[in-house]
Amino acid sequence: MTSEQPGEEAADLELLRQWDWDHVWHPFEPHDIGAPQKPPLFVRGEGCWLIDSEGNRVLDGVSSLWCNLHGHRVPDIDQAIRDQLDQLAHSSLLGAINIPAARLARKLVEVAPKGLSRVYFSDDGATAVEAALKIAFQYQQQRPNPQPGKNRFLALNEAYHGDTLGAVAVGDIPRFHRQFGPLLFPVKRVCQPFCYRCPLNLKRPECALACASEATELIGRHAHELAAVIVEPVVQGAAGMVVAPAGWLEAVALACKRFDVLLIADEVATGFGRTGRLFACEHEGIVPDLMCLAKGITGGYLPLAATLATEAVFQAFCGPPSEGRAFYHGHTYSGNPLGAAAALASLEMLLKPGYLAEVETKGKQLEAGLAVLAKHAHVGEIRRKGLMLGIELVANSVTRAPFGAAERVGRRVTDHARSHGVLLRPLGDVVVVMPPLSITGAEIDLLAQAVSRAIFETLPEGFN
């Protein structure tokens, strides 16, 4: 790490730290009153780097929670927001139109899988999913041949779709969701397509995609009661960067179409180039009935989300006011002009020739830089799709036995990485590495070296 002159007096910064400790309730963080922590206090960003209050430059190895695509202080996005500020910061979409939201809706329809023609704006990933669930439910009541009995959902084991109650209901990660069980509606479950820890105790390729066959069978068996199937296409992010085997997503999409069940693709984490395609659905050529977008939509600048729908779904909500077919659901900041302006600028960058092709090239370089970890007895698997990478740490790489939760191995690794100038955040004992798409080759090498060193320092006895 290198140092720069802090931007504020040390005494003022310490006071800010105290105010944070006294008043800020941080998400997903234990708050031990008897053991105050000293997390980094970031005051500036430059490219793929964050600068803390002590002047240390830290590589943003998780894209500020997976949303920062082009780095920090991107001139094109900065200017788009400034220009929009000179016009209009916010106006409601309830009974009104604003220019950036209309332009963004058109652009999203142009670049999304063909067939998605309507855009419902909200605030973040969970609200995009919440809207999709309610749309799917109401659609089944109002479709041309109403199916009121189709009011349930099928989701994957270990799914994560956000933290509002509907999104939690279709989620299935115990440490996030278990305590809210009494508040949730029941959901059908299907095994996740996780080759490293196959829930069917099979191996590729001899398994013949048995997980896809199970999903197809369940969809068919419960089609009479299913409003929709919801999946994270290609990569289950919060489950530990679980990459589905090729063909699984297509099989599920075909089953949904065959059995008249809507398919919701939650592209909150995988969308906007993260997997090497603009949307993960493109890897298997599928068109979902509903697609949820957020995180990278504004390049990591402002809260914005979108739920895209097919025309067939949208038409079920059309009719005279007296019929009560409208979708009575909304958000104050839906289609916020500043967020939409940022999103348009970000999309323009993503669509430049060669930009997305570089994502896979950079992903391969990152994976190659971590190849030394293959010799480590506590590295179970390195999983990657595009620039989404997870390193699963295990107590024994032969038996694949996990570490005990109390050991907090993943967190200890990311603490060591911080000392080497890289900011990471684990998912349990899966170390997530998800840098901005704009990362350079030299920065990839630095990132890989820091991650490797952090793992060797945390688990020195594991090197073979």
In words, what does this structure look like?
Mean pLDDT is 95; it is low at 1-6. The chain starts with 9 loop residues before the first helix and ends in a 6-residue tail after the last helix. 34% of the residues lie in helices and 16% in strands. By secondary structure, it is α/β, with parallel strands linked by helices. The protein is globular, with a radius of gyration of 22 Å. It has helices spanning 10-23, 63-66, 75-85, 99-111, 125-142, 165-170, 174-177, 210-222, 248-258, 311-315, 337-350, 355-369, 409-419, 441-458; strands spanning 42-46, 49-52, 57-60, 116-122, 152-156, 188-190, 226-231, 235-236, 242-243, 262-266, 290-293, 305-310, 379-385, 388-393, 422-423, 425-427, 430-433. A hairpin with a 4-residue loop joins strand 2 and strand 3. The longest helix has 18 residues, at 125-142.
The CATH H-level homologous superfamily of the largest domain: Type I PLP-dependent aspartate aminotransferase-like (Major domain)
Low-confidence stretches: 1-6
The CATH architecture designation of the largest domain is 3-Layer(aba) Sandwich
Number of strands: 17
Q: What is the overall shape?
A: globular
**How many domains is the backbone divided into?**
2
Instruction: Return the CATH topology of the largest domain.
Output: Aspartate Aminotransferase, domain 2
Nearest-integer average pLDDT? 95
Question: Helicity level, as a percent range?
Answer: 25-40%
